[in-house]
Amino acid sequence: MEYRVLGRTGVSVSAFALGTLHLGAWGNGDHDDAVRLVHTALDAGINLIDTADQYSEGEAERIVGKAIRGRRDEVVLATKGHFPVQRGDRDPNRRGNSRRWLTRAVEDSLRRLGTDRIDLYQVHRPDPSTDIDETLSVLSDLVRAGKIMAIGTSDFPAEQLVEAQWVADRRNHVPFRTEQPPYSVFVRGIEADVLPTARKYGLGVLTWSPLNSGWLTGRFRRGEPIELTEFRRVVAHKFDLELPGNRRKIEAVESLLAVAEEAGISLTHLALAFAANHPAVTSVLLGPRTIEQLTDQLDAAGVRLDDAALDRIDEIVPPGVTLNPADVDYRRPALTDPGLRRRR
Q1: With 0-12 CB in 10 A as exposed, 13-18 as middle and 19+ as buried, what is 338?
Q2: Around Cβ 3, how many Cβ atoms within 10 Å?
Q3: Which residues make Cβ contacts (< 8 Å) with residue 80, sequence separation at least 6?
Q4: Over residues 310-321, mean pLDDT
Q5: Is the dihedral of CA 46, 178, 85, 55 positive or negative?
Q6: In what helix (H) or strand (E) does residue 121 lie, and over which residues does it extend?
Q7: pLDDT band for position 339 (50/70/90)?
Q8: Does the structure show a pLDDT above 70 at 317?
Q9: CB atoms < 10 A from the CB of 240, how many?
Q10: In sequence order, what DSSP letters do the residues of 176-197 get, joined into one string?
Q11: Cβ–Cβ < 8 Å for 184, 275
Q12: What mean pLDDT comes out for the span 59-87?
């Protein structure tokens, strides 16, 4: 396993990390099996585990806590807060990036994880209703209290990454050290702005969904229905083959399978190697549900794509392009609220 320094933290992390979205009710609800999966990842050289309080309503954090008991010092432990932990919770103060909520969220994560510190705490999404100065202030206090070692963001647009660096510098806050965006052959929008910004400010980049929720495994083929799992039902629009963006993805899969065959590898390995190839990417989060999936994905650690394969991928999905707009998880408020772009 290759190791890379995570931004300017001085901490080295594995080029592939274990994402835990599918541990618990959203994927693998067998805790013993999920713990074995985590141990398999650690034994293979993965040292970065990424989770979130929201995943399976806190269950994923509890599973990770069980799995790292006795092995805590081997792990660079990352988690996230922002969303309500309980689905359907309508309390407006049990979400977001305010001092009130993040203070509570960090304490709850520490308890579920069974640890006294979080190596990397990330705000899961931007919060337009909270001043970034407020968010950085509370996270800085938690760092100084020793509860968090470093802080980062997830799905922040480039301009908000710049603003956060500016505010941290002028207000003497602890700065964000990482960004966690979605990145895959099918979701390349961050190549245009987020990745160059991360390199400019020395941010570590942890990318998620390198297989685009299964689209880049070769399991979804032209003319075949897509089975909706528990997680896929939550985001069913990303798998609706009546939508033009998803039809474009089905056609691209057929072309990419040919590229993978020419390279002598599976489409899964092609996709993972692509995500790890960008010089701004520090670590690629794998999201397996089973040990078999993890073992297969780990085999991509030794795959290197030559320029010919990368050029062919660029022809199929041009740099900076996201094939399906539904795959953009965070949208700037001005793009979602008509009141912000229409004079009354």
Answers
A1: exposed
A2: 15
A3: 50, 51, 52, 53, 54, 121, 122, 123, 124, 154, 180
A4: 97
A5: negative
A6: strand 120-123
A7: confident
A8: yes
A9: 14
A10: P-EEE-B-SSSB-GGGTTHHHH
A11: yes
A12: 96
Average pLDDT, whole number, for the chain? 94
Residue 59 in tokens = 């269950």
Q: Cα 201–138–173 angle (5° rounding)? A: 40
> Which residue is it, tokens 């309503």?
57
Note whether 195 and 206 are within 8 A (CB). no
Q: Considering only CA atoms, which of 183, 327, 186 is closest in space to residue 251?
A: 186
pLDDT (tens digit, 9 = 90+) per residue, 134-171?
999 999 999 999 999 999 999 999 999 999 999 999 99
- Asked whether the beta carbons of 85 and 58 are under 8 A apart, the reply is yes
- The pLDDT confidence band at residue 230, using thresholds 50, 70 and 90, is low
Tokens describing residue 285? 């989060």
Q: What backbone phi and psi angles, to 5 degrees, belong to 319? A: -55, 140
* pLDDT tens-digit map of 181-224: 999 999 999 999 999 999 999 999 999 999 998 999 988 888 77
User: Domains of the chain (ranges plus CATH)?
Assistant: 3-340 (3.20.20.100)
Is position 55 annotated as part of the catalytic site? yes
- pTM, two decimals, is 0.94
Strands, E assignment, 164-277: 178-180, 204-207
CA distance 313 to 185: 8
Tokens of 42: 């650690």
Q: Say which amino acid occupies 46.
A: I
Distances from the Cα of 38 to the Cαs of 176, 185, 193, 241, in angstroms? Answer: 27, 26, 33, 34
Closest CA to 45 of 79, 70, 13: 13
Mean pLDDT of 267-294: 96
Q: Which of 3, 55, 201, 330 is catalytic?
A: 55
